Amino acid sequence: MNAKLVQRPIAAAVAAALLVSACVTNPDGSIKMDDRAKGALIGAVAGCALASASGSDCAKGAVVGAAVGFLVGWYFESKKVADAKQVNAEYQKQKVAIPKKEITPVAFSSKVTQAKPDAKGDQEVQITSSTDLIGYGDKVPEVQQKYAIYDENNKLVEEKIEKLTAVDGAGRYQTNSKFTKPANAKGKNYTVKTALIANNKTYKENSYKVSFQDGGAVMLASVR
C-alpha cells in the first residue's frame, strides 16, 4: 500500500485529537470550536501538506503544524487614539525635538492584566500597549510588536510578531492582545516580553513576570 495513503488518515487522526481537546460542548448540546482548535486544524493540514511535498512523514508534519497553528488563536488589534498634531504638540511642550523629515517612536509602554478563568479553568492574560510616534516626515515607518512567553527555565514557549496596521504616520496608537493560560499552568512562573520594532530595529522591550497561583490568582511584576 502507498505510504502516503496511510499517512493521510494518521494526520487526520492527529488533527481530530487536537480538535476534541480544544472544543467545548455548550449547554444546548452544540459544539463550539475555539480559536486554538481552528489554529490546530489549519496548522495540521499545512504541516502535512508541507511534509508530503518534501517527501517527509505526513503525520510528523501534522503534529508540528498543529503546534505552530495554535498561535493563530492569539488575538491582536491596533488602533489610533490621538492624531499627529496632538502628539507632536505634547512632546514639543516637553522640549522634545520633533524630527522634520522622518517619523520615529518616542514612547512604548505595556500593561499586563488578567481575566476571570472560564468554565474549563483556562484564563486569559491581556496585554495593552501604547506607542507614541512623532515627526513630520511623509514616509510611514513599518511598526511591529513582538510578543514572547518564556517558561521558568527561560525556554521560549510562544512567540508572535504583529504589524500595527493602524499606523499611518505620527500619533498615539493602542494595541490589545491576549493569550490563554491553560489550567495546568498553575504554580508555574512565566516571563512575558513585549517589544516595539520600527523599520526592523527594536526600539524598546518591556518584560513582566507572570505567576499563576492556585485558586486562579495571577501575580504580575514588571521587570523593566
Please render the helix and strand layout as text:
Elements (H helix, E strand, L loop, with lengths): L2 H20 E3 L5 E3 L1 H19 L4 H12 L5 E8 L1 H10 L9 E12 L8 E13 L7 E8 L5 E8 L7 E11 L7 E10 L2 E12 L5 E5 L2
Antiparallel strand pairs: 1-2, 3-8, 4-5, 5-8, 6-7, 6-9, 9-10, 10-11
Descriptive overview:
The protein has helices at 3-22, 35-53, 58-69, 84-93; strands at residues 23-25, 31-33, 75-82, 103-114, 123-135, 143-150, 156-163, 171-181, 189-198, 201-212, 218-222. The chain has 224 residues and is of the alpha+beta class. The strands form three sheets. A five-stranded antiparallel sheet has the order 7-6-9-10-11, with no helix packed on it. It is built from four helices and eleven strands, in the order αββααβαββββββββ. Helix 1 (3-22) packs antiparallel against helix 2 (35-53).
What is the N-to-C succession of helices and strands?
A: HEEHHEHEEEEEEEE
| Total count of strands | 11
Give the fraction of residues assigned to helices. Answer: 25-40%
Look at the structure and give the mean pLDDT: 72
Uncertain runs: 2-8, 10-27, 29-73
> Describe the biggest sheet?
5 strands, antiparallel
**Shape assignment:** elongated
What structural category do the secondary elements indicate? alpha+beta
The neighbouring-strand order within the major sheet is 7-6-9-10-11
Rg, Å, rounded:
21 Å
Number of helices: 4
Distance between termini? Answer: 58 Å
